[in-house]
Design a protein that fits this description.
The protein is mainly alpha-helical. Helix content is 73%, strand content 0%. Helix 1 runs parallel beside helix 3 (40-56). It is globular, with a radius of gyration of 11 Å.
Length: 74
């Protein structure tokens, strides 16, 4: 995955994480499908973003989906 694609993927995670939209499923599916294309750094940033958001918003919508995607890419 090149630098531009990494920026787009991480930006998508940051944008969608607080949303209540079908886009959440699309981003989570993308992460799972492209697990092996994500760099170690990408995975660390995405995991940190998800954990920080959940910590601040424990009752967030689609929490299960984000946790599943995060666990899958680790």
């Amino acid at each position: 995955m090149d630098c531009n694609e990494s920026v787009v993927v991480i930006s998508a995670v940051r944008y969608m994480i607080g949303r209540s939209s079908y886009g959440v499923g699309s981003v989570c599916d993308y992460l799972k499908t492209n697990k092996y294309r994500l760099s170690k750094s990408n995975k660390e940033v995405i995991t940190r973003e998800i954990l920080e958001y959940i910590e601040k918003n424990p009752d967030m919508r689609y929490k299960k989906d984000w946790i599943e995607a995060m666990d899958f890419i680790k």
